[in-house]
Amino acid sequence: MNIYNICVLKILFFLSLSQANVIKQESDTCQQILGDELIREISSYGNVRDEIFRYVLEGEFKGKTYDELAKFVDKFGARPSGTEVLENSIDYMIELTRAEDINDIVTEELEVPHWTRGEERVTMLQPRVKNLSVLGLGRSVSTPPEGITAEVVIVTDFAELENSREEDIKGKIVIFDPVYTTYGETSVYRSQSATRASAKGAVASLVRSIAPFSIDSPHTGSQSYGQNVTQIPTAAITLEDADLIRRIINRGEKVILKIEMSSSYDTKISRNTIVDLKGRENPDSLVIVSGHIDSWDVGQGAMDDGGGLFVSWAAPVILKRLNLQPRRTVRSIFWTAEEFGLIGAYAYEEKHRDENHNINFIMESDEGTFAPLGLAVAGNQEARCIIAEILKLFESINATTLVEDDSPGSDIAVITRTGIPGASLHNDNERYFWFHHTAGDTMNVEDERELDLGSAFWTTVAYIIADISVDIPR
Amino acid sequence: MNIYNICVLKILFFLSLSQANVIKQESDTCQQILGDELIREISSYGNVRDEIFRYVLEGEFKGKTYDELAKFVDKFGARPSGTEVLENSIDYMIELTRAEDINDIVTEELEVPHWTRGEERVTMLQPRVKNLSVLGLGRSVSTPPEGITAEVVIVTDFAELENSREEDIKGKIVIFDPVYTTYGETSVYRSQSATRASAKGAVASLVRSIAPFSIDSPHTGSQSYGQNVTQIPTAAITLEDADLIRRIINRGEKVILKIEMSSSYDTKISRNTIVDLKGRENPDSLVIVSGHIDSWDVGQGAMDDGGGLFVSWAAPVILKRLNLQPRRTVRSIFWTAEEFGLIGAYAYEEKHRDENHNINFIMESDEGTFAPLGLAVAGNQEARCIIAEILKLFESINATTLVEDDSPGSDIAVITRTGIPGASLHNDNERYFWFHHTAGDTMNVEDERELDLGSAFWTTVAYIIADISVDIPR
């Protein structure tokens, strides 16, 4: 070892020292909680991990997650709640699964929203004529045929709206222009914008797209009207146009917009799809993997949530192909109508409430299927220690991170909030919200190798949790 | 100095050793060419550099380039060749300059293309119905009112087209789907697509947008029809849709598109604008800074080329405000109709051909005004040595790089190819082609601090070249 190498090691050592201490303390606590025997048992799954990873990354399954996702997405495109294309895509997934000789498949019907976007146009009339790129928000009502023409009031947050005088808002178009922090924090300006603005007398509401980056990209998403307010039209505009209007108003000029939007809204019947790879010892006990099959009407829903759907489809398929039957059942659920408010998940939770004790652990991938980094986990300390121990098996792909999250995922939050432990795929999704709910949610966002890593990781984690000697404690 | 610091220095030293040798050799040659006296003279401009940088980065001009650009872009939006809004924006720039008490301003009229985009719609009819995001290319003819419906042939490059049998192309829509390498290399698939496809009997041509990244973003741009070919409609589609169609065709399926496009085309009169800050000793000798004022009809032309226009506007303004009058004249040119093929620059070159000996050095910024990194320089070795020596003054902002480029810039290539030395702003424009010719070319791409750095750098370089005792040799 030469002087250069010694120096580098020394530097890395100094840098890692403090972090290492924290990790060691946590690790000591978990070691006490789990005991040596369980730790040895978990680490013994290294062989299964290797088998699955070889099969998915180098063997017959290599590239299959990407290819099957591409075929699916290219065939159906967008799959909005309540549409025939969504139902056809559900039938397709059932056939695709049956072709793998997995036949424990049931669907459960439920009523879902069916909101159809019509023509949408927002035009700045003053101080100059400019068309804005726009996407109406889910459930938005139409404007009158002649549109709505009004002056704009722009606010940064709800407090600024609430502090405005009624007469400054009445008859105006309100633009919500929040600072994007996280999606969780900021998306409330989309979901509540119409209700809040209407309550103060606005005639329409627009929201700065809930995104950190844009190439003139409007981002749609769901919203719902509160009780006792006039339902006013509502849409997302781009970061660029929000900033433009902000600058113009800051210069003391008046902005007048004309909004023309049409849509229709009713309900339809859709289905959750439940695929079981029955456990060999305790088939009633479930380890659930899941993603949603519906998407927004723009883009192709490749990322949201085609990727999550397909890594969750892949888990029982890979196990079946490798003849790996765990003690407990691995259940894969393809949720429907997530985008309109976790409609499928609510229906499932209600229908299966009295068997909820059977859910040993529930997983969901709905925040991208980029390179896996670990899991965001809800559960008590013992549950998290078990998951942390399992994640140690993924050091070679750098997927050992356990993020403590009391409400991971979207659909599964409906289940985990009843006290059932669960996890969401933690992945390298830094750009996720660049594409989310836009026309840019296509196969171009997806990466073959990252999807392979995702499928292999997802399948291995599900297998181990479904197979170890202990249940995940609550 | 502790062991850690010694280690780091040692590592950095090893890493930089080989690069340093190359730079030292070049530097030795330049030292011989320039001689100590000129080198000392150039380095003596450190004081002027400091004065300009203080004024622009911390003084009265701080933020002004961004603010003035934003006011301009927000007021006029897109400024396509041949439009009234472009002419109004030219008048505005003249007034803005006059307000700085700079009155040596002339405009020179010329005939420019006036192509107006109408309705554009491309719909995939088979294997499923999908609207494609699309932008017609400059000068494209319209389709018949009923549109053009035909099967698609997709090719990677011109060779693949040329090698195709006539009967495989005849009556088809050709999609050019080149691999993006550099803009210079790849954009030929936009500018020549219609001509090449038409020559083989295609009824329309589409081109994968000339860009490395997309959020469903079509990129327009110019094209021209060759002699003796039928003029067929031509447009850019997104990376996403090009890949989608490629995958579908690779699976053996047929793709049928319907293209509906309308446009009109005539010519109008526009103007180049010439602003002179007269030199104190040799006013006939010109150091030109320039950018183009026209833009594409989508987006706002903030990046292409609002930034270049405004740093070039700023150069004489800053010098005037600081009462820095160099020996030679600093001329700022706002080119018109660049986007339709350097129309303004050609007219200028033709009109001023017999005074071309007066151009000491010509500069252009038309590749973004992100953080300046240096200059891309055309000229003989002595010229480049002088510029390299000047660039040494910008070490503190990391803008010392001289890129040897025989044809830097766009408009000024018309001048430099006659043997006149010149340079284009070399800047940190990695994402330039993400936004180029899209609706996303807005103020959101621009950064206040980077524009300040650009203005300060541009002004200082122009001043030094205009003031040093020697002409830039040819």
From TrEMBL, chains A, B:
InterPro entries: CPQ, PA_domain, Peptidase_M28. Residues 272-451 form the Peptidase M28 domain. Residues 149-244 form the PA domain. Keywords: Carboxypeptidase, Endoplasmic reticulum, Glycoprotein, Golgi apparatus, Hydrolase, Lysosome, Metal-binding, Metalloprotease, Protease, Secreted, Signal, Zinc, Zymogen. Pfam families: PA, Peptidase_M28. Homodimer. The monomeric form is inactive while the homodimer is active. Belongs to the peptidase M28 family. This is Carboxypeptidase Q. It comes from Galleria mellonella. The gene is LOC113510567.
